[in-house]
Each structure stands twice: as C-alpha cells, then as structure tokens.
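Sample A.
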Amino acid sequence: MREIIAILRGIDPDEAVPVTEALVNAGITRIEVPLNSPSPFLSIRAMVDTFGDVAQIGAGTVLTPEDVRNVAETGARMVVSPNCDPEVIAATRTAGLDSYPGVLTPTECFAALKAGATALKVFPAFQMGIEGLKALRAVLPIETRLYMVGGVGPAAFREWVSAGASGFGIGSALYRPGDTPEDVATRAAEMVAAHDGAFE
C-alpha cells in the first residue's frame, strides 16, 4: 500500500465513487473524506461499499468521540484529525480503527503515541519544515510513522523521505471540488510516480 493518503475535502456523494475509482486505479488506496464535506457519511459509506476490499477508506477532520462512532458505523477503517485529542484517539482504537491524529510539537507527538495513535499526521508540515522533521525524528521512537500533511508536494517527496517522513497526506494537489475523475487520475499518476521515486 503506497504511503499516500488522498484527502477529498469538499467532495459530494455523487462524485465520491468515481473519484475513488480514479485514485485506486492509479495506485492510491488510502483515502479520507473530511467530515466538513457535504454529507460525508454518505460518501464514506458508498466508498466503503464499492472499494472497501481494496482500499483503506476513512474520515478526516474527526473532532469528537461521537464523530468516531458515526465513522465506525460506515465501515470505514481510518480516522484522521487535525489535532491531538486523547479521547478521540482512544475512541478510535476502541472501535478497531486506525488513528492518525494531527501533531506539530514533540509534546503532541508523545501524547498521541501514549494515547494509542497508529501513526502521526504532522500538520501543517510546511510549518515544521525539513530541518524540523529531522530534529523530531531524533527523539521519537524509531518505529513511529509520520505522515506529512499541508504544503507538501511531489517535487519535495524525496527530500521529506530522506528527512524521516513515512508518507504524505495530499489534498488540493489531488482533488478540488468540481474536479472530474479524469483530472484526479492525471494528478494521481504524477503523485504515484513521485512517491515511487522517493521510496526507491
């Protein structure tokens, strides 16, 4: 499974399945729908029903344990948040889902790991920068998985990976509301090529 999480912020339920198909066909099989999108649970359920056997479908911008319960009911397997909330992490793990809380400081990283996070979403990654990531990597447990999100593009994938990134969350560089599946397929192919080159 490639270390790219596609973030479909603002997607409409009518678009969810064809856009997901474009991503999966390109080789991107971790996909989240932020909960501040239109009717997100309808989109997530449709995506799970159609692609749940070949892709890890999840929700983003998950802020409360109640949100986690609603996500779990769709059959999704991943919860992504912009912040580090131990209650949300605990609810996610109790529900049997993978937890990707948002962190930026060492304190938040260690709090998220203590609460049971599966991996960490460094957000916004541009604020930490390459040198910041190197410094963070020096103190975190070696097995910690770090996904860089926010201002990270394919041109710099290799540099981020060299600094210790495990993967990337990509939003508007892959999908913006109104994009066609063909638009997404083209960008996804470029993203996959950059990913594969960075992890060679």
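Sample B, a different protein:
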Amino acid sequence: MTHRFPENFLWGGAVAANQVEGAYNQDGKGLSTADVVKYCPPEERQSLEQLLSMSGQQLEEAIQDGDQGKYPKRRGIDFYHRYKEDIALFAEMGFKVFRLSISWPRIYPNGDETVPNEAGLRFYDDVFDELRKYNIEPLVTISHYEMPVHLVTQYNGWESRELVELFVRYADTVFTRYRDKVKYWLTFNEINCTLKAPFLGAGIILDGKPNEKQVAFQALHHQFVASALAVKRGREINPQFQIGCMLARKLLYPYSSHPGDVLKAQAENQMAQFCSDVQVRGYYPSYIRRHLEQHRVTIEMQQGDEAVLRDNRVDFLSFSYYMSSVVSVDESITAKTEGNLSSGLKNPFLKTSDWGWQIDPTGLRVVLKEMHDRYQIPLFVVENGLGAADVLEPDGTIRDQYRIEYLAQHIEQMAEAIADGVELMGYASWGCIDLISASTSEMRKRYGYIYVDQDDGGNGTLQRIRKNSFYWYQKVIASGGTDLSY
C-alpha cells in the first residue's frame, strides 16, 4: 500500500527530563521524586506495584542517601551536558518534533518558592535554541513523572489542594519564559497513572491511608483543576499555544464473546479514558459516579471547579500506546502479561517483547479510531516503541531489526487510521535515544534509535552510536512515511 501522511505531519521522538538529563544536583536543581527511586535488580523484583510505590521510610532513606550509583535517574544519560550532540543526531534523522519535559525542581527546587531558579530557566532556553537551529519543534511536557521532593514531604504531593496554585505558578513561569520558543505543550504525562501508581504520578505516600482510591481520585481532581488553570493561563500568555493532555492508553479486549467479558472490557476501556473525558469534554462522565460510589470515594470540589474544567478544555489529545491485553470474568484464566504500569491477561494471538509486553499494531488503529470518534479533536501519538536488550556487535553495529519491524507495523496502522478519517498530528516514538527506564530504572531496556554506552550500574563511556533503526527512521521521515521497507 502507499502510506499517506499529511504534509505537516510531525515526525520525531520523545524523552523525559528525569530519564535523560542527569546533573541532578547541579545549577540549583532540587531533588525530584524520580531522583529517589532506587534501582532494583531483576532477581529482587516482586511486582510492578513494588517498583512504582514508595513508603515514607524509603523516601527518607533515599533523601539522606548520597550514593548516586543506587539511583539511576540521578545520572540519566547526561543529556544536560550533551544535548547539542544529541539534538544534532535527531536533526540528522530528520526530526520535525522532539518531545521533552521540563524538570519542575530545576525551575523551582522546592516547588513552593516565589522566585524561579534562573540557571534552570537558562538551560531550557539553550535547549530550545538548539532545536530551533535545526527547525525542530519542541513538544514540552510540564510535569512528567517528577516533582520536587519537598512537595511530597511537606504536602504529600497532589493529595493537597495547595499544589494547584504551586503548579500554576510553575506553568505560568515556563509559559512566559518560552512563549516565543515553544508552541506545543502537554500539562501532565500519562495523567491516569495517578490511579495506578500514586507516587509515580502524583508524589503520594500511601502509608496508613484507609482508602487509597479516595486519595488517588482526590489527587487526580487537583491535577485536573491545575491542568485546566494552566491551559487558561497559557492561552492568555500566547493565544497561539497548542496545549494538550496526555494519556496512557492500553487497549483491553474481552477474552471471549461471553457477555461478562465484553462488559468488563467495555468498563475498563471507559476507565482508561476517564481522564481524557474530563480534560477534553470538560466534565466528569456519568459512568464514573457508580465507580466512585462502589469504592466509597467522595471527591471534594471547590466552588468554581466545574466551570474551570468546562471552560478550559485542551486543544488536542496525546497518548502513549505500547500494547494491549485482555480481560475476563473467568477467574480460572490466569496467564498474565506485563505492560506499561499495569499487567493483564495474555492474548494468545499476539507476540511478546523481551519484557513481556504484547505487541499489537492493529490495536493502535483501533485506539485511534475509537478516540477520534469519541472526541473529534486532533490526536498525537507521543509515545510508542519497543524496549529490548540490544547488543553492540564487535563491528560497532546494533542490528535492531525487531525494533524496525515493530515501528513499521505501528506506523502502517497509523496510516490506515488516517485513511479511515482520523486527524493525527504527529508521531513521537518513545526513547528515541536510550534512557533510564521509568518503571524499572534499568538501562538495558532500550528503546532508542541511538545506543548509549552505559549499563544498569552506570558503567560505560556514554558514547552515542547509531543503530540500524536510526537509518531506517531517517528514510521513513524523508519519505513522509511512504517508505517503511526493511
């Protein structure tokens, strides 16, 4: 087939500050929630939930622990000092867009100061200027799985309403500073993660909380309000801004045609889109009421919150898509698969990655069509990719054919969705350069087109090496997505 993408389609890649920058204690940066996540060897991992949670005691120990080697996100891949080299490589591939995040504690070290850290602001000035040199549009996430640790110890993160004002101040600062350098913005990364991993998504310590769902939903409401107020302020600062929300989107299929399986899949897919329902439509959907009642959750709203959500909806919906899984009411079905922040039942019709994530390119087309039908606003795939244990061959090459096949199949399904009528803005594949994993804090789970010479222990030269996928993606972009051959 001939793949057709719009002329202005934004091809590129994505990273997060806490997974690439390093320099965790330089130029006035404060400690972030990502900086206190310790590396856990595979043989010691009990569950994904264990990796994504944090107790008060663990947090205190990590804050006091000066052993940088235990905390991989403190070192990242040294993008802080190597950004010019990395951006030059992105430009060589032909990137039209580069999704990155701003580190909140690099701008406000504790999060509740009234004056920002000028050194942090200057760093992102330099990064955006470098991107502009190559005509690469920055797509900036304001909050991507990190916040100042002080906001956790002082307020328990987003459980506190006080964070709304602090976040809006931070957003106002970066909107104002970069009003002429950044057009595309996202407020929160994978905002629905707050319900699955409250510490990762919202800086919440759940010690002694009798109703964890109550805490998570209340925190999520505070994030909704903060996001909407940030959208309002952003439009006041520059009406040309395009401000979107960002969702972790995993498609759930019914295990069988049993009506119970179908109903369960429908309900879980609704919950997967609960956050975008609020941020795109501007109100809490009716189906959520029963869910809240069943779990004894009462969301405390202030007067005016509903109007804020209604009047400050996002311009576009971005999302991550890596995999799908299945659900069933039959408790005897136990074969599990891993996934992005959650596990699920295994689909016998799909292949599985090295990390147990099931590969489902067609599911991306299904998701694109469903969300376009649901919302009728532009969509943007801002994360998609294959985590794999790449091998650096003796001749200096990385032959990641498996990654090329994965990406080609997903891009082909995006083209089909566009032909189906979906309005798709762009594609920023995840981890365009190898980085520290968000969930496992390991380095050997690689997504990039660019290999970084560093192992899980932080050993290596940090040399950047082009993988075979680098040259393939270069060809894809140059052809406007019409040549996916491999």
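Observation for Sample B: The mean pLDDT is 95.
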